[in-house]
Amino acid sequence: MKLVYTVASAFLVVLIAQSAYASEKLSAQDYAYNSTCLNHLRSHIKRELQAAVTYLAMGAWANHYSVQRPGLANFFFDSASEEREHGLKLLGYLRMRGHNDLDILPSSLEPLNGKYEWENSLSALRQALKMEKDVTESIKKIIDYCADAEDHQLADYLTGDFMEEQLKGQRNVAGLANTLQGVLRKQPRLGEWIFDNNLSKSMAV
Ligand SMILES: [Fe+2]
């Protein structure tokens, strides 16, 4: 009888240990976890994804037969993929830092200002440049806030990896807008077509 009790109690101990194992989740949140700082980053993911959707709308517009700017369409579609990639990088970063919310993605997304059409290539590029500058400003504000909140790891990650890519993208859009403006000054009628033709060729390389 004593043996039966011993076996039964050992079995009970194993069961309790198993249920504790099943219900216990170990936190990955680190020492510098600052909820406000990470929430700013979370909001920034929406900004990156909205930039992706805006570039998609620009690409679709430039690709329409009535606009017919295939070079610009490819540039905008590539830019949309890059912005989506930035959103994914930040999602991965938040997970790495132990941000536990699963409800992390924006419930709705539409292009900036609900806009799907542009007057011409230059007006689309000007809006793209403004959007890039707003994204840069948002990243800078997060860096400032998180450095003050002593989350130096996040401030460093955004300053190094993230900001450099952002600034390169911004510089690229500014360069394209300036080139187009220059071509249009010399060739007001054909300038947009010449610019798009050259952009198509340079993207094909
Ligand atoms: Fe971005």
Describe the structure.
With 205 residues, the protein is an all-alpha fold. It has one domain: Ferritin (Up-down Bundle), CATH 1.20.1260. 76% of the residues lie in helices and 0% in strands. It is built from 6 helices and no strands. Helix 2 runs antiparallel to helix 4 and helix 3 crosses helix 6. The model has no long low-confidence stretch (mean pLDDT 89). Bound molecules: fe (ii) ion. The site of fe (ii) ion has 6 residues, from helix 2 and helix 3. Its main location: Golgi. Pfam families: Ferritin (PF00210). Belongs to the ferritin family.
Task: Please write out the topology.
Elements: H1 2-23, H2 35-63, H3 70-96, H4 121-148, H5 152-186, H6 191-204
Helix pairs in contact: 2-3, 2-4, 3-6, 4-5, 5-6
Bound molecules: fe (ii) ion.
Fe (ii) ion is lined by residues 48, 51, 83, 86, 135, 166.
List keywords for this structure.
single chain, 205 residues, mainly alpha, Ferritin, 6 helices, binds fe (ii) ion
> What's the average pLDDT?
89
What string, H for helix and E for strand, traces the elements in order?
HHHHHH
Based on DSSP secondary structure assignment, what is the total number of beta strands? 0
Q: Which CATH class?
A: Mainly Alpha
CATH homologous superfamily annotation: Ferritin, core subunit, four-helix bundle
Ligand catalogue: fe (ii) ion
Count of helical stretches: 6
- Show unreliable segments: none
Biggest sheet features:
none
* Sheet/helix structural class: mainly alpha
Strand percentage lies at under 5%
Cα(first) to Cα(last) distance is: 84 Å
If classified by CATH, what would the architecture be?
A: Up-down Bundle
Helix fraction bin: over 70%
Please compute the radius of gyration using only Cα atoms.
25 Å
* Whole-number total of structural domains: 1
